[in-house]
């Protein structure tokens, strides 16, 4: 297998072992080639996540690949099994990115409702426009808690960690906000 044909799907320890040992011995050309292959494999992996819409932009995929390349450059002398190291680092970088991007998502309520195809005729049981108006008047914490719980479907524990409050405080904010919305609608 040629090194230019390697991708995150088909690289093998045997294909890279020679380059790793030469790099660790101080061969700069082997290190440069190996670094290029690591970046190519990393970018292919993250690019596939981009195509699966798990990564927001192709630039994010490139940044993640660059992070893996930098980690390799710092750690290459201590890498015993490059295949295992690379698979682990790729996965951990992706998981960290995914968690951070999920934690920092905030939605415009109008956009979310349109995506979920909620409309005026969705039911006579509630007035969507009135609920949106009420939610827009809520304080920042109340809006955040409501959006994170309802639209992001996050458990109270994760909301508490994100907002640096206790779980009990988050539950209190959430349930009181729901009651506030209900009482305002009844008026």
Please tell me about this protein's structure.
There is one protein chain. The chain has 187 residues and is an all-alpha fold. Helix content is 71%, strand content 0%. It is built from nine helices and no strands. The chain has helices at 13-24, 28-51, 58-75, 82-103, 109-115, 128-137, 140-150, 156-163, 167-186. Helix 3 (58-75) crosses helix 4. The protein starts with 12 loop residues before the first helix and ends with a helix. 17% of the residues are buried.
Q: What's the domain count?
A: 2
Number of strands: 0
Low-pLDDT sequence parts: 118-124
Q: What is the beta-strand fraction?
A: under 5%
Please summarize the sheet with the most strands.
Answer: none
Please, how many helices? 9
Shape: elongated
Brief overview, please?
With 187 residues, this protein is mainly α. Helices cover 71% and strands 0% of the residues. α3 crosses α4 and α7 (140-150) crosses α9 (167-186).
């Amino acid at each position: 297998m040629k090194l230019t044909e390697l991708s995150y799907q088909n690289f093998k320890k045997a294909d890279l072992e020679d380059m790793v040992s030469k790099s660790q011995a101080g061969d700069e050309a082997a290190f440069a080639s190996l670094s290029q292959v690591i970046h190519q494999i990393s970018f292919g992996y993250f690019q596939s996540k981009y195509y699966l819409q798990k990564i927001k932009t192709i630039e994010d995929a490139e940044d993640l690949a660059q992070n893996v390349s930098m980690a390799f450059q710092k750690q290459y002398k201590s890498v015993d099994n490059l295949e295992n190291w690379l698979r682990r680092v790729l996965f951990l970088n992706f998981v960290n990115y995914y968690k951070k991007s999920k934690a920092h998502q905030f939605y415009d309520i109008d956009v979310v409702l349109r995506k979920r195809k909620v409309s005026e005729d969705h039911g006579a049981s509630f007035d969507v426009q009135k609920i949106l108006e009420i939610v827009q008047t809520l304080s920042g914490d109340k809006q955040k808690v409501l959006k994170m719980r309802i639209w992001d479907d996050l458990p109270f524990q994760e909301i508490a960690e994100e907002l640096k409050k206790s779980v009990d405080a988050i539950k209190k904010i959430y349930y009181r906000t729901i009651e506030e919305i209900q009482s305002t609608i009844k008026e």
